């Protein structure tokens, strides 16, 4: 089994998620907050920094979300 380091808390884990089991709920919650924010406000004229300020999600986590499956479209818009 592959051991991965959680990018949220630094703990090591072996499941196949993006983050460790302890962080999964928070990660999913922030991911849906991010998606809702973009759907509601659009992505034009929004930098990740602005979104970070408005949603309270760290820029580091927003950058990680852009690499998640299903967010390829967002990634293009921010590059
Ligand atoms: Zn974690």
Number of domains: 1
Question: β content, as a range?
Answer: 5-15%
Order of the strands making up the biggest sheet:
1-2
Distinct ligands:
zinc ion
User: Overall mean pLDDT score?
Assistant: 90
Shape: elongated
Helix percent band: 40-55%
Can you walk me through this structure?
The protein is mainly α. It has one domain. It has 4 helices and 2 strands; from the N terminus they run ββαααα. It has a two-stranded antiparallel sheet with strand order 1-2. β1 and β2 form a beta hairpin. The longest helix has 21 residues, at 21-41. The termini are far apart. The relative contact order is 0.12. The structure holds zinc ion (ZN). Zinc ion binds next to α1.
Annotate the secondary structure layout.
Layout: E1 4-5, E2 12-13, H1 21-41, H2 48-55, H3 59-65, H4 72-78
Antiparallel strand pairs: 1-2
Bound molecules: zinc ion (ZN).
Zinc ion (ZN) is lined by residues 6, 8-9, 11, 19-20, 22-23.
Short précis:
By secondary structure, the chain is mainly α. It has one domain (23-78). It is built from four helices and two strands.
List the main descriptive attributes of the protein structure presented here.
79 residues; mainly alpha; two-stranded antiparallel ribbon; 4 helices; 2 strands; binds zinc ion
């Amino acid at each position: 089994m592959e051991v991965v380091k959680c990018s949220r808390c630094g703990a090591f884990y072996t499941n196949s998620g993006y983050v460790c089991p302890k962080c999964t709920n928070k990660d999913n919650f922030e991911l849906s907050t991010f998606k809702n924010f973009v759907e509601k406000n659009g992505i034009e004229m929004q930098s990740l920094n602005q979104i970070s300020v408005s949603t309270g999600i760290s820029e580091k986590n927003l950058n990680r979300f852009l690499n998640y499956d299903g967010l390829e479209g967002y990634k293009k818009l921010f590059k």
